[in-house]
Amino acid sequence: MTKDGEVIFNEINTMPGFTAISMYPMLFEAAGIPKPEMVTKLIEHGLKRYEA
After folding, report:
1. Exposed, middle or buried by CB within 10 Å (0-12, 13-18, 19+), for 46?
2. What angle do CA 35, 38, 41 make, to 5 degrees?
3. Rounded (5°) CA angle 21-10-26
4. pLDDT (0 to 100) of residue 36
5. Are 24 and 16 in contact (CB under 8 A)?
6. How far apart are the C-alpha atoms of 3 and 5, rounded to whole Å?
7. For residue 12, what pLDDT is reported?
8. What is the pLDDT of residues 10-45, one digit of tens each?
9. DSSP codes joined into one string, 7-36
10. How far apart are CA 27 and CA 10, in angstroms?
11. How far apart are CA 45 and CA 52, in angstroms?
């Protein structure tokens, strides 16, 4: 999301890569979210969906 609130999608990918050259983690890092925090956020999101 940009500072103006515009949402930008790279692609809808049900199996995003997590290698050193994968765009998915690079997008998080570009947004200021390091990989460990990204993984934590994804796990927390999954747990919330499971508990719902």
Report:
1. exposed
2. 155
3. 30
4. 93
5. yes
6. 5
7. 73
8. 777 777 788 888 888 998 999 999 999 999 998 999
9. ---S---SS---STT-HHHHHHHHTT--HH
10. 8
11. 11
Q: State how far the Cα of 8 lies from the Cα of 20, in Å rounded to an integer.
A: 22
The answer to whether the CB of 16 falls within 8 A of the CB of 22 is yes
Q: Token pair for residue 40?
A: 């934590």
CA distance 34 to 8: 19
| Distant-in-sequence, close-in-space partners of 32: CB < 8 Å, separation ≥ 6 | none
Whether the Cβ atoms of residue 8 and residue 1 lie closer than 8 Å to each other: yes
Per-residue model confidence (pLDDT) at position 30 = 92
Query: In residues, how long is the chain?
Result: 52
